[in-house]
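PROTEIN ENTRY
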Amino acid sequence: MTVSRCSWCGDDPLYVEYHDTEWGVPIHDDEDLFAKLLLDGFQAGLSWITILRRREGFLAAMDGLDPQKIARYTPRRIEKLMQDKRIIRNRQKVVASVRNAQAWLEVMDSGSFAELLWDHVGGSPRINRRNRSRDIPTETEQSRAMSRQLKKLGFGFCGPTICYAFMQATGMVNDHLVSCFRHPELS
């Protein structure tokens, strides 16, 4: 039996597994959301499969993407990361990940990162009913608002396109095509 899924994942086994088990599943954990936003920031200008292939390397090199540890990275630690072939060695992205962790800590001092993010979709997933990939936008008013808020709080590498991809991946938006077997499972 052939399973119908979104075409973007192609037939790469890693991508298919990600699509079938992770993409679009609602995440409400503060630290998990931070980790996903950090990886989405590293994706800027690259394909998601590039990040997926290095995700284990990121986890190993960057303390499991623990924001409390990343927030304390020193310039020396940043230099060490710049030599680590397991991650994307882009200085701006590495430095931004440290700033983002520090901003995350500030958000957590006064509330919840998950609540701050999920407020952009009214607290529950938006269920879209798209028939074609070309009908899926790269950004929305909600992703633009999220981007503005995150930037105001000190986050970097969180433009509206990154925020929309993040919203899709973390289940804030169900953008599986209606023909995909995951659409009804996540609706």
